[in-house]
TrEMBL record:
It comes from Gossypium stocksii. This is A to I editase domain-containing protein. InterPro entries: A_deamin (IPR002466). GO terms for molecular function: double-stranded RNA adenosine deaminase activity; double-stranded RNA binding; tRNA-specific adenosine deaminase activity. PANTHER family: AT07585P-RELATED (PTHR10910:SF62), EUKARYOTE SPECIFIC DSRNA BINDING PROTEIN (PTHR10910). Residues 58-136 form the A to I editase domain. GO terms for biological process: adenosine to inosine editing; RNA processing.
């Protein structure tokens, strides 16, 4: 059975995304990465622009969660170190930095965000039209 054009494009998209994530991961120092037979989970958030340019904006690895006896609610211990959680934390840092640039530069031209006033006079931020956020993950 012949693959449809959409299925072929989805496979190409997946390869492009995987290549970008693995390229960034491999460029990082060995410290903290699995060695030998060790494995981990790798997760990444990517942004794609209206022109389909794709950029890795957050990356995380990990498979651990501390035991219930060590849980704390005061913020001095990382409770969950799964790859998706670490990548989400990096994503939030990226978002905060983008919003800070948008505010500091009165409409940062290259930001993925745009701002608008909400009904109560506050400012609301949203990703600009045409941009898409993607979550990617695998075992390494």
């Amino acid at each position: 059975m012949e693959e449809s054009q959409l299925e072929l494009e989805e496979k190409q998209w997946g390869s492009i995304v995987a290549d970008k994530v693995f390229s960034l991961y491999k460029s990082l120092p060995k410290k903290g990465k699995p060695q030998g037979r060790e494995v981990t989970v790798l997760a990444a958030f990517l942004l794609s622009s209206p022109s389909q340019d794709t950029e890795v904006i957050a990356l995380g690895t990990g498979t651990k969660c501390i035991g219930r006896s060590k849980l704390t609610h005061i913020g001095n211990i990382v409770n969950d170190s799964h790859a998706e959680i670490i990548a989400r934390r990096a994503l939030l840092r990226f978002f905060y930095a983008e919003i800070q640039c948008l505010n500091d530069n009165n409409g940062f031209q290259n930001s993925v965000f745009e701002s608008e006033l909400d009904g109560s006079g506050g400012i609301k931020y949203k990703i600009q039209a045409g941009w898409k956020l993607h979550l990617w993950g695998c075992f390494t």
